Here is the input.
Amino acid sequence: MAFKALAAFLTLAAFQVANAALTRRVACPDGVNTATNAACCSLFALRDDLQQNLFDNGQCGEDVHESLRLTFHDAIGIGSNGGGGADGSIAIFEDIETAFHANAGIDEIINEQKPFLARHNITVGDFIQFAGALGVSNCPGAPRLPVFIGRPNAVAPAPDKTVPEPFDSVDTILARFADAGNFSTVEVVWLLISHTIAAADLVDPTIPGTPFDSTPETFDTQFFVETQLKGTLFPGTAGNQGEVESPLQGEIRLQSDFELARDSRTACEWQSFVNNQRKLTNRFQAVFTKMTVLGNDVNSLIDCSELIPEPPAFTGSATFPAGFSVNDVEQACEATPFPTLATDPGPVTSVAPVPPS
Here is the structure.
């Protein structure tokens, strides 16, 4: 399965290289920039606008997290029951799709992005995917994500139940991803790498802005360490449905992440990311490339990936949070020992919430 996924990624990467090689570099109308395709020229102004006025001059903050979340919630709206994939339907049909339970709270980033969309000549589907890829470039350790343009605007909303919920079973989650885009079991884990820079506002509304790991501003492997620390599953009350108690104060864990980290089908792939930054970035770039074009004819799209800056480097290592050790790991991968990690010095501290935008 993993080989097939990487083969698909390499095929799309070959398309990117060929597309760039066949197009002569052109001067853009702004008199400053050049591009391999004239169609990409308009993205320079959009890029600068987003970086300055949405992403706080290049910060990896809440608007970046939410913009990445939006790329997924739009693209995953496809399957045997309908939906157009990455087509902008979640914003075009906002009144319908934001009412779906799984999309709770996503109207906030849609509304924040509206003024930028109005100022620039770009389809909604292209805008959502571009903004997500650009935002991630502000996060240390992140991969440089691809950008394609040429998606037509959605003509109908995606159906409900296309976005997996945190309280769904592993069987349900794997089946949904397989139906959406023939995502393999390991590719599901790869998509959840996005949770390394994520936080929740409404899984438990009493603690908004609660991150999924202790380093939500860094695209690192800490998420895959901390989800494997021992925790307790809540009974699923209205206030914390889909939430798992984290041993780190101030941190939230989704039931789905907790169970995927421990399921025999996904546990070893989950553990394989611990302190493996190179694999983390490589696999997320591959699976984002697949997700960002769902429902579209790749051959009709234009590669504008050159517009995305190289993200800042991350040279740190995964660690156990202060006060924790391998004895606190609830290891589920029987094939491979848990990696050896250092423990942060000092007393146990609380994880700070992600500040609102």
Notes: Confidence is low (pLDDT under 50) at residues 235-239. The longest strand covers residues 243-245.
